[in-house]
Amino acid sequence: MSIDTTGNDAARKEAKVRVEHLYKVFGAQPDDTLRRLQAGETKDRIYADTGSVAAVADVSFDVHQGEIFVVMGLSGSGKSTLIRCINRLIEPTRGRILIDDEDIVGLDAEALRRLRRDKLSMVFQHFALFPHKSVGENVEYGLKIRGMPARERRDKALKALEQVGLAAHADVPPDNLSGGMQQRVGLARGLAVDPELMLMDEPFSALDPLIRRDMQDELLVLQQRLRMTIIFITHDLHEALRLGDRIAIMKDGRFVQLGTPEAIVARPADDYVAAFTRDVDRARVFRARALRRDAEALGPEASVEKARERLAQLERTALYVIDAHDRPQGVVRRASLESAAAPTLEALLERDFPTAHEDQELVELYDVCATGLPVALVDGEGRLTGVVEPLEVFRLLGGNGGESDGGEAMGDTASRPSEHAGSLEMRRRNHG
Ligand SMILES: Nc1ncnc2c1ncn2[C@@H]1O[C@H](COP(=O)(O)OP(=O)(O)OP(=O)(O)O)[C@@H](O)[C@H]1O
Ligand SMILES: [Mg+2]
């Protein structure tokens, strides 16, 4: 099955952030704790014995330039500790953190200040707005402490407020705004500094569901326009699925699974991940392209012999024939190819075939799957981009997809070429 399980095709992209074997221990004698961790002792056991907390334990991952990397996990799993190590609000106990290939763990105070000024910004769930400053001044604050002249920072703050739809409120105190609007001010404050890397720690968790969805949409639009790299923490799977190019699931300081939204939902690595994904409606999470296979289509000039030859090499029940513009013209079944003393391919072609747009939700494919023929996937121009086998649709939606290549449990992180990355398109097309 051609579900992209790891998003590793993206691994060829540039790493904006690379975390290598990161550990954070709270407590005395961190070395002892590290030794115990490496000997396989659990976080709970170590805490019971020593009173030290292994908040982050041997975490490694890359965040690619321009992606939204989501970290999800239960309370206490180490998400905030991890993200705070990345801007060194917390000092890692061991490991490397590279931002644009520079190891930031060793940076001195001055270099760290520069890094935070030039590249990073952070948005929290509970950020404090200054009550006696105006909304605009709140947004300017980060620029002010960076020494930006008044005029320039005012312009920048207004631009950031515009991006979140609050330019008209620049001169009022934050108390005049609703909770959702205040959270937007927090986002504007993060955006004002033009960060290359945004660290977002449950920024929308305090918002009510409708506003939260708006903010998610807005973030997707902003991210597409500004091409920031974002590390985003959430408790909420639906938020993770909407936002994440890739999702890491964290438990007891470790990543238990890292993969595309499809992979996490289709093949949870263990019961912990499964508990998050159980209630997800797969038929709506997945787009048709998530199950796309190569069409192996035949060109307009193909002969019966050619078709038989190709089928002999493939486990397919049928093949599509395309015209000179890659548009599907019809489908020829294996059975008819094998039985026929067929004169021409043309004579065997069925022109009434099941088809779907590659971005359609799987729930919309049920009907066309009923024919049993592979479904022809087409793009916006009507070109054949692949096929979906009905059995794979039913298998995935039946929750019984486990026989084919699996979602990536951690510890099995070797790069594997994957055929495509459905996740981006899965959500972005609605936000373009
Ligand atoms: N300053 C600290 N001193 C001691 N222990 C800490 C400290 N900060 C965090 N911890 C512990 O480290 C572990 C991870 O905490 P962390 O705040 O990173 O979790 P989290 O996943 O962000 O949780 P939440 O979802 O509740 O925000 C927890 O066991 C927590 O008690
Ligand atoms: Mg936290």
Question: Secondary structure elements and their pairing?
Answer:
Elements: E1 15-26, H1 30-38, H2 43-50, E2 53-64, E3 68-73, H3 79-86, E4 94-99, E5 102-103, H4 109-118, E6 120-124, H5 135-145, H6 150-163, H7 179-192, E7 197-201, H8 209-226, E8 229-234, H9 237-243, E9 246-251, E10 254-259, H10 261-266, H11 271-277, H12 282-285, H13 304-313, E11 318-322, E12 328-333, H14 334-339, H15 345-348, E13 355-357, H16 366-369, E14 375-378, E15 384-388, H17 390-397, H18 422-428
Parallel strand pairs: 3-8, 3-9, 6-7, 7-8, 13-14
Antiparallel strand pairs: 1-2, 1-4, 4-5, 9-10, 11-12, 14-15
Helix pairs in contact: 5-6, 5-7, 6-7
Bound molecules: adenosine-5'-triphosphate (ATP) and magnesium ion.
Magnesium ion binds next to helix 3.
List the defining traits of the structure above.
Rossmann fold; binds magnesium ion; 432 residues; binds adenosine-5'-triphosphate; four-stranded antiparallel beta sheet; CBS-domain; six-stranded mixed beta sheet; 36% helix; alpha/beta
